[in-house]
Design a protein that fits this description.
The protein is of the alpha+beta class and 242 residues long. The protein contains ten helices and four strands.
């Protein structure tokens, strides 16, 4: 059986990481049996989550895990899409992972209130005399990467405006379809769902979340995907309560 290593439930989400969510949803799409274990990034061959173990082989990075599933198990996540649609789906995936994701990082890690409420607790189990320094160092490293991504070079409102343009593109692509590319989910839906759910979780308050909530079809899409792939998770109840 495949073992998926991720962060686990938290921040009002069934899985903290949008990349782990992507892989978990793709495992479900492929109908593959798996078990899930908690891990931290240093345990991974590439120092990041997710990674999987499959018959003694460790595969890290969500995109390479997808390629492994397609190659080993013969599952085509983009079945039914023509060449142009496959290219379009890949372009949207790159936009999500290299632009929308960093907007999520800014809202979650760089915003001091959200950091204190969420990621700072990753270090609660560290020795007390080291805890605060570990938190400061982690936030600094993430903020530095946020800067290098390009979004962090702009004023807070400006980076949100740029992210909203990508959300608008996703909203236009989705339209009134159930999934991004049509009547059935494809691999990029797992990517989009992970990132959008991370933005829309009621656990964090942010200007990004407020703007994302204005795209009614995207919020309905996340609700629909959550119900399909995490039916046991009380997502709608938490959103309505918020």
């Amino acid at each position: 059986m495949i073992t998926l290593f991720g962060f686990g439930t938290g921040f009002g989400l069934p899985e903290i990481s949008p990349f782990v969510t992507k892989t978990e949803v793709q495992l479900k799409m492929a109908g593959l049996a798996y078990r899930k274990e908690r891990a931290m990034p240093p345990a991974s061959p590439k120092g990041q989550l997710p990674f999987i173990e499959d018959e003694g082989q460790a595969i890290a990075d969500s995109t390479f895990i997808r390629a492994h599933i397609e190659r080993k198990y013969g599952f085509d996540f983009d079945e039914g899409l023509d060449r142009a649609q496959r290219a379009q789906a890949w372009a949207f995936e790159r936009m999500i992972e290299h632009h929308v994701y960093w907007a999520l990082v800014g809202a979650r890690w760089v915003d001091p209130e959200n950091f204190a409420k969420g990621p700072a607790h990753f270090f609660d189990g560290a020795p007390e005399h080291r805890r605060e320094k570990l938190r400061e160092d982690a936030q600094f490293r993430v903020a530095e990467n946020y800067l290098l991504s390009g979004l962090g070079r702009h004023a807070p409102d400006d980076d949100v405006e740029l992210a909203v343009r990508s959300l608008f593109a996703l909203s236009v692509q989705l339209g009134d379809k159930p999934y991004l590319m049509g009547a059935k989910p494809c691999g990029t839906d797992a990517t989009a769902f992970g990132a959008l759910a991370g933005i829309l979780t009621p656990f964090f308050s942010s200007r990004l979340r407020e703007r994302a909530e204005q795209f009614a079809n995207l919020t309905a899409y996340v609700d629909r995907m959550m119900g399909q792939y995490y039916p046991e998770f009380a997502w709608k109840a938490e959103r309505e309560a918020a």
